[in-house]
Design a protein that fits this description.
The structure is a homodimer of 369-residue chains. Chain A has 369 residues and is α/β, with parallel strands linked by helices. Chain A has two domains: 4-160 and 319-338, 3-Layer(aba) Sandwich (Rossmann fold); 176-312 and 349-366, Dihydrodipicolinate Reductase, domain 2 (2-Layer Sandwich). Chain A has helices at 44-50, 70-80, 114-123, 138-151, 165-175, 202-205, 209-225, 320-334, 342-361; strands at residues 35-40, 60-66, 87-88, 104-107, 127-130, 155-157, 182-190, 231-237, 251-257, 263-269, 274-281, 284-288, 299-302, 365-366. In chain A, helix 2 links the parallel strand 2 and strand 3. In chain A, helix 3 packs parallel to helix 4 (138-151) and helix 4 runs antiparallel to helix 9 (342-361). The A-B interface holds A 183-184, 186, 188, 190, 192, 233, 235, 237, 239, 251, 253, 255, 257, 261-263, 265, 267, 269, 271-274, 280-282, 285, 289, 303-304, 362-364 and B 183-184, 186, 188, 190, 192, 233, 235, 237, 239, 251, 253, 255, 257, 261-263, 265, 267, 269, 271-274, 280-282, 285, 289, 303-304, 362-364.
């Protein structure tokens, strides 16, 4: 039972808690055949973060690469033991259908390419793990879900924090009532974006800080509260004279109304560094700072910062990425829906679109149930 | 020069910085005649907090009490050396006009009584220091200002944080550019209000947590940024089944838009404890937690909480209250306008009314310049 410690508080798509753990005795055990991944896109995240994580996985292995740079692909393949037949480019990408070693395609491309490469993967008979944000629009998200459904393939979104030990522990304690009734959620996420990033090109990114870093605050609001917002209000502030922000937003603040009465206050920015999550209940608070970093996350539970939780129960993997990769692998083996399926990415995207609409129209936007 | 360390960064009414320090060589020096105060209302704040502060003052002394409880008044008078002729009740209150020892009346009554007792004091020829919130409506605030103006008397509002060392140091560092360009301000203020408080009776308080504790977040937003908001959006959440909240609000979140582009996000609540101020600039941040407590405030400046400022330059008084009382005394002696005059209370009240309107109408409210 790999996921035993998460039983009862795994985060299901939609923010609700899953009634049962993800793992089951029928799932692959260490030593069984590992699920083969193709990484699409050898940029900072795919090459720098994801590929080195397979060594931490129990059920996942790297078997293929897709890159527009053949030299880079060969170099990476050699370093990570990917066979020559596992090297693809964007022209022959569809021929992955003929490679039975590939079970899952992990799309680590600019956001504008997510839909195309997810849909082509599904048509090639592969399961898909796609980075967040899922796509540049909810319409694209719907097409991706439909394509995977039509192909009978799974679709998971790369929401790594669902596999991160401090976040899981915070959720567990909130659900256990340690801070009483939750009243208020707040999260700020921002960093100083560098000029030249593709994320500043709207055609590639779909949007600015909200799509890139603010989505962590939105996700956290949903998985920490376990609720879906019913309305949003947003205010954008961008210095259009700053060369970085000619196409996309810098700061956007958004307020979420939840059905239980919890108020969510979130901030996203490309012009300052912040990474913070706070849950306030009528009996105490849970605070993470940083909350969603690659490493070094910290958690406090109590009245203030008197009590730090330095050793939360381990997450489902050696790292948040290993947990994520192996979760998809187990879902493939056991034919289960990933806890952060395409529908989860679609929900975020619909809320993001409402946030942008609210900021444009300077009014509260009610969300469809 | 008592206020020398504050020269150049004293907070003027309206949130702007005063060009000169409050003190001047013409002001009263230690040893000169002290300004006489009458304290109106021997409740928790007047009796528990203000009266014991005169021992820390250089220019202020307690000379009179106004109370509806003669036994209590006599007891307090004996303890603090107030002469028999300095004991008043609410019926003979207007006869303070005949007591030349009284220079300033400090109104420490429930909010609904502020206007009446301020106006009567002005008519009796006395200067007034009135607790915050200034009154239950901006219309009352205007009447109070008019009455004091007509009487040629000064009116100051009890915004003690303008005299609190950590807050002053935070403002100084923000203005000095230590965190670069300010982008975002956030403040949460709340505590668990007890059932039975007069503050839960709307007729006495004028409103709920916003009037009582959220006003600290609003004030901080204005004095920390040095700007006046141009628009607000607010969302209220109150459990009306909670017996405490039959008449007034529990939680109210409000977002402030400032002319420079700074976004302000504030939260007020009566159902959880929080006292936090954060300024984020493009080069760092300033954080106070708690930020506006009676004691124990803490300040960090930098990227996170690595650098705590444990010894800010002292405020204008031995305590924030002594600084406040002596500031009014010096203003009386030197015929200067207090840095937190009635107009400052009126500004807050107009914003508070817009916040309530926004929450009621669920829409953004533009503020008059």
């Amino acid at each position: 039972m790999i996921d035993q410690h998460r039983r009862g508080f795994v985060l299901a798509a939609g923010g609700a808690l899953a009634a049962t753990a993800v793992g089951s005795p029928a799932l692959a055990q260490p030593g069984d055949k590992k699920i083969g991944y193709a990484i699409v896109g050898l940029g900072g995240y795919g090459l720098g973060i994801i590929i080195p994580q397979f060594k931490n996985c129990q059920h996942s292995k790297l078997v293929a690469l897709v890159s527009g740079d053949p030299d880079k692909a060969r170099r990476v393949a050699a370093e990570y033991g990917v066979p020559e037949k596992g090297i693809y480019n964007y022209e022959n990408y569809d021929s992955i259908r003929d490679n039975p070693d590939i079970d899952v395609v992990y799309v680590c491309l600019p956001v504008s390419m997510h839909a195309e490469y997810t849909i082509r993967a599904a048509k090639a008979g592969k399961h898909v793990l796609c980075e967040k944000p899922m796509a540049v629009s909810s319409a694209e998200c719907e097409k991706m879900i439909a394509a995977c459904k039509a192909a009978g393939r799974k679709l998971m979104i790369g929401y790594r924090c669902h596999f991160e030990a401090f976040n899981l522990e915070a959720v567990r304690r909130a659900r256990a009532g340690e801070i009483g009734q939750l009243r208020y959620f707040r999260s700020e996420h921002g960093f100083v974006q560098r000029d030249g990033s593709w994320r500043l090109k709207k055609a590639m990114s779909g949007g600015g800080s909200l799509m890139d870093i603010g989505i962590y605050a939105l996700q956290a609001a949903r998985y920490m509260t376990g609720e879906e917002p019913v309305a949003v209000y947003a205010h954008e502030q961008t210095d259009r004279k700053d060369v970085r922000f000619r196409e996309v937003e810098d700061m956007i603040q958004f307020e979420l109304e939840f059905p239980s009465g919890v108020i969510g206050s979130c901030m996203s920015m490309y012009s300052a560094n912040q990474n913070h999550i706070l849950l306030m209940g009528d009996k105490g608070r849970i605070e993470l700072e940083p909350g969603t970093s690659y490493s070094g996350n910290r958690l406090w539970v109590g009245r203030g910062r008197e009590t730090e939780i330095t050793a939360p129960p381990p997450g489902p993997g050696a790292t948040q990425w290993a947990g994520q990769l192996d979760h998809m692998a187990r879902c493939v083996v056991s034919d289960r829906q990933p806890i952060v399926a395409g529908e989860e990415g679609l929900r975020d995207m619909r809320i993001i679109e409402a946030i942008y609409q609210s900021a444009r129209e300077k009014r509260r936007i009610a969300l469809r149930a």
